[in-house]
Description:
This protein is of the alpha+beta class. 49% of the residues lie in helices and 10% in strands. A hairpin with an 8-residue loop joins strand 3 and strand 4 (82-87). The protein starts with 6 loop residues before the first helix and ends in a 5-residue tail after the last helix.
Amino acid sequence: xxxxxxxxxxxxFTDGLKCIAELFVKNNHELRIAGGAVRDLxxxxxxxxxxxxxxxxxxxMKELFQTAGIRMINNxxxxxxxxxARVHNQNFEITTLRIDVATDGRHAEVQFTTDWQTDAERxxxxxxxxxxxxxxxxxxxxxxxxxxKKKKVRFVGDPSQRIQEDYLRIMRYFxxxxxxxKELGDHDPKTLKSIKQHAKGMAGISGERIWFELKKTxxxxxxxxxxxxxxxxxxxxxxxxxxxxxxxxxxxxxxxNVEHHSPKPMTVLAALFRIQDDVxxxxxxxxxxxxxxQLGLFLVKYRRDLIKADGPDPLKPYRxxxxxxxxxxxxxxxxxxxxxxxxxxxxxxxxQWSIPRFPVSGHDLRRIGIISGKEIGTxxxxxxxxxxxxxxxxxxxxxxxxxxxx
Length: 406
């Protein structure tokens, strides 16, 4: 049996975890770390989230937590076997081992078990099917560690069966391929065939769940390759992407531009869209956030029109655009546009730029005798243009000195 004895592993043992572990041992229930956290630890990373699996049923867990005076929160997961305990200001999500007795491609009816291998068997990918004992023992029933070392992404058992249990696993396959795989086309042909065969199942999956997986795919590796596969395997039409006119050539170019610049998922995806309506159609299907929708519409509209200036100040059009928009989020949007366009040097400048404040107000103009509202509006716009031409350097006194008092 493989043992893990790393600093990342030992860091997990907070006072909260020690308290929970002691409780389970005392009551003869096994507790192991499950899924993604095991994968991260084997990859030498500190896990962000740690999920636990146990042989104890939800009723057992409730009883032992109540007896120990431990608070339980969020009982939504209980019917799937998940209890969340809060100990020492830390949440512990613990799920009873289970078997899927019936699935409809979206939800599963579960039955509890004490068999660790049976639980591992119903998980999606081999790299996500491992458990880790609190003594550091690795329990790996489907060669997940071998696959992880070889950077292979494989379904547990038969891909077709796994996908039909939950069609979202198609998107999870792409996401983990971008996270784990080293080579572009290192797919098992049987897996791709199963994905294509069951692509239509994606039509019944909620937009929010699809977008969660797609977003992570868009900021992983091999993005252009994976989005190309989404088209090749007939999935695009079921997840809100432009069906005939997805611009894969532009996506390829933008993926190179944004590399190492931490783009937002929409910055990458916008490359596929030819018109703003494509963004609106995506929103209808995936229920993206208002900010994501606005960013998509902005990028599609301005990616060709808002470009650098010739001459000594190439960033000027972008700065002017931010100032004119008077929108608090515009600087961030323009930074995403510069990533999209591959303007690395200008991006650095824009990120470091502090937006100057226009120094003159209507109150200042009233003080020098201009009282007509219409005249104040016109004059403020003229002064704003003058200030802009000065490179935002003129101060209040200089600007007011050019105003003729009535």
